[in-house]
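Lay summary. Proteins are chains of building blocks that fold into shapes, and those shapes determine what they do. In this project we predict the shape from the chain. Here is one chain we studied, written as its sequence of building blocks.
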Amino acid sequence: MTANRPIVMGIVGDSAAGKTTITSGIARILGRDRVTRVCVDDYHKYDRAERAAIGITPLDPKCNYIDMMELHAERLQYGQPILKPVYDHTNGTLVRPEYVVPREFVILEGLLTFATPVLRQFLDVKVYLDPPEEVRRVWKLKRDTTKRGYTEAQVLAELEKREVDSAAFIRPQRDFADIVVRFQPPPGVSASQPDARYDARMVLRPTIEHPDLSYLVDGPRPAGDGIRLELGRDNGRPADFLTIESAVTTEQAGALEDCIWRHLPGLRPLTGDQFGEYVDLQQVRHSDHLALTELLLAYNLLRGSARPDSMTLAPPVAALRRTALQQGADGATDAELVSRAPTRGEAMADAEMSR
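And here is the predicted shape, written in a compact code that computers can read:
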């Protein structure tokens, strides 16, 4: 069954990969009054002191209430409010929960947003942030020493401690993304260089519809053009690769920006300096590459909003679990529950026939 419901985007990335920055930019483009933001890292079971005593990292699913994340993702897609837990990253404590009402667009961002089939089925667009590890290390050092009260030595020790869980639980989620975003320094430039400018590279998989960027490949391209669209393979699967080089000119960036705006229904175009902001050592800076990335991601949310007749409701897995327990099928996996689920239309037809 189709429904007029919120459009839900999931954003995953390791710690300091840029999740909050990207989410803020998308909300600015769409209008903050139209976007509900939910950080799934708030679903930690333990505070910072308890994790240290237990010897567990927040990257481990066992350290998080994954079942509550699934239930809340379901309620948000169905347009229902949730009482969301809150984790205070400044001091590592669990604080008063927050009442959250879904708006037209919902963005779930965090470490484990794609962790289970149940979570993924409630996401219309899935984005994975994939900066090289040397870049993420620089970003995490800057953020955690200026905003979260860590020393440099503590941050480096935490990175080392989390590496096993990053490889086991975070990076495998890349396989489930519709779009993979990577900011990386151009060849010969160090990530730690002050004011380093980055290339942006996006993997656009054919699992969702993307804006028509054929102007980038049709006809002759000027020499030294800093924007390229190429067909290739990612992990053995076909995909488009959009590259925006750090040396891109304002005119080239503006042409791509105009192309994307033309595909955004019902939005008043913003100027490039109204989004694409990030914080570097407590200073607000602007990046054309970041702005273009945020604009492309906003398109994918609006695409769903412009086609309400194609938006279906995912199966109500919480109810399925209760039914499975009643029937003695509690050994079923999440993936099996999802595959067994009747569609909304089938459930309504069964109800009608039983009258």
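What the prediction tells us: The chain is about 35% helix and 20% strand.
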